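Hey,

Quick one before I head out. I ran the complex with 3,4-dihydroxyphenylalanine overnight. Inputs first:
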Amino acid sequence: MNNIDKIRSEIESFQVDNAETLEQFRLRFLSKKSEIQSLFGEIKNIAQENRKEFGQLVNDLRDMAQENYNRFKAAVEAVSGNNTTEIPDITRPAARLNVGSMHPISIMMNEVRQIFEEIGFSAVEGPDIEDDWHVFTALNFAEEHPARDMQDTFFIKLRPDVLLRTHTSSLQVRTMETQKPPIRVICPGRVFRNEAITSRAHCIFHQVEGLYIAENVSFADMKQTLLYFAQRMFGDDVRIRLRPSYFPFTEPSAEMDISCNICGGAGCNLCKHTGWVEILGCGMVDPNVLENCGIDSGKYSGFAFGLGIERMTMLKYRTNDIRLYFENDVRFLQQFKAATK
Ligand code: DAH
């Protein structure tokens, strides 16, 4: 009787959690050589009057073992998904999910945006199809300025004063017409020029315009802002150089070069062996432009700049042909997966 109790509690506490322990359970409690079977062999040694009761207890014990076994077996089979013990190959690669990448021009635009947004500039956008006032006249372009020439500007045939913007400086005008100083904006956008397409020039490209108008803004403020930008974009070792230049809408005007990040300034094909590459035009906003846009030039001053995105992208990713950005060849675009955020 003690044996029966002992085996019952063993059955109750036996843990089965896989095919192997299930088999151990079977051998221990249900096989021909199990203790329960040997108890059946004991029946003949039991006193006649107790034999029936003892036989019943051993029977119950065997039934209980069998029931537990059936339950365990079903559970193990449910976990392995079938009634074999085969394990699926968990090292097999998953089906490939073909995700796209961001276009390098968008990556660069976002990076420029982020750098300026962190120092208080906010981004504004405007129309690609513009009028003469916003692209030229308000920006102090003289009536006979060559930039208005048919060779540079795409005009919309129906209306002589409607055209595709040749620069994002048009957004300076739109911003000053609608906001009061202090103004701190950057304006990313696509621009169009009627130019022959080569490895260095395209009829469509992208610019980011910057504009800062407040009281007492100086050329030194502009220089420091642009140096900060260049270092954030190209690393702390980059140097900048401002060369005197001319734009109708700024006075004084400058073009900014950065030390060539391909040869480190030593001289290479990209920088035409000068060690410097031009990335933007800039200057102090001409008082005429402020007045054209309804801003008191006696009280306010400001600086503006226009960055060429393709040029910067070519520098940063070391590509040598601007046409690659417009061909949508996935073999080229896929290479920007790692830079896609
Ligand atoms: N709009 C000029 C261009 O397309 C670039 C530029 C130069 C923008 C000087 C500016 C600036 O805001 O101040 O070549």
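Residues 167, 169, 209, 247, 250, 281-283, 304-306 surround 3,4-dihydroxyphenylalanine (CB under 6 Å).

Talk tomorrow,
K.
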